[in-house]
Amino acid sequence: MKILVLTGAGISAESGVPTFRGSDGLWEGHRVEQVATPEAFHQNPELVHKFYNMRRRKLLEESIKPNAAHIALAEFEGRHQGEFLLVTQNIDDLHQRAGSRNVLPMHGELLKARCGLTGEVFDWRDDLGIDTPHPSEPDLIGALRPHIVWFGEMPMGLERIASFAQDCDLFIAIGTSAVVYPAAGIVQSTPATCRRVEINLDDTPQSDKFDITIRGKASIEVPKFLNSLATPGHRP
Ligand code: BV8
Predict the structure, then answer these.
(1) Ligand 1: distance of its center to the CA of 104 in Å?
(2) E-strand spans in the chain?
C-alpha cells in the first residue's frame, strides 16, 4: 500500500508550537500572511528576521518535543512495507526528531538558512539578522534568509508530491486547516481509488473531499488510526 501523509500546524500544537489560525494568524499585530512574504523581507528584513528568530528560539526550547502523533507516524513508517511519504507544511523539525525518514518539508525548515545569492542551504540554530556573515564567506554580510517558503513563493518538492499522489492508495491529512494552496489541493490530485482520511480538530473547506473524517486531537487519533491499519485485513 502506497501511503501519502500531509501534516499541518495542528500536529505540532500539542507539542507547544502555536498554530497559525488558532492564534488568529496574528503576530505582534501583523497578519502572518503579511510578514511571511518576500516583499515584507525586502521592505523590513529586521521585522521578518525577528519573527523567525523568535520562532526558532521557541522551537529549540527544552520543552518542545515530538508528541504521540509524530512518534506514531515515525513508527508506522518504520514498519510499513510499501512506499511512504510524509509531506509537512510545518517548518519545525518534530517529524525528523521523532524518527520519520521520508519527510518532505514543502514550506521549508526553520532550522535552516539559505544564501540569497548562491542558494546554498545551511543548518542554522542561531538568530539570523541583516548583519549575519555568510558561513563560508565572512565578508559577505546580510546575504542569508530563512530557508522558508513565503506566501507568493513556490513550495518545495511539488513535482515529487504530485507524482507520489497520483497513484497513492491512502492519503491522510493531519492537523491542517486546508486553506493554503497548493498544499490544500493535494487531496484532489489523489486517484479515485485512493482512500482519503482527514484527522483534524475541526471541519475544513476540504473535508467533503475525504472518505473518512476523524475529529479529535492528533496525539490521540493518529496513533489510534495507524494502529487500526496495522490490524490484519483492515481496509481503512
Ligand atoms: C504559491 C511558511 C505560487 C511560513 C507557509 C495572493 C498572493 C500570493 C499568493 C496567494 C494569494 N492568494 C492565494 C495565494 C496562494 C497562497 C495561499 O494559499 N494563500 C492563502 C492564505 C489563501 N499560497 C502561496 O502563496 C504558496 N505559494 O502559491 O506560489 C505557485 C504555486 C504553485 C506552483 C507555482 C507557483 C506558498 C504557501 C506557503 C506559505 N508559507 N509557511 C511560515 O511558517 O512562517 S504557510 C503556513 O500556513 C504554514 O506553513 C501552513 O502550511 C499554512 C497553513 O496552516 P496549517 O498548517 O493548516 O495550520 P493552521 O493553523 O491554519 O490550521 C491548523 C489546523 O489544525 C486547524 O484546522 C485546527 O483545527 C487543527 N488543529 C489544531 N490543534 C490540533 C488540530 N488538529 C488535531 N489535533 C490538534 N491538537
Answers:
(1) 15
(2) 3-7, 26-27, 30-31, 84-88, 103-105, 108-115, 121-123, 144-148, 170-174, 195-200, 212-215
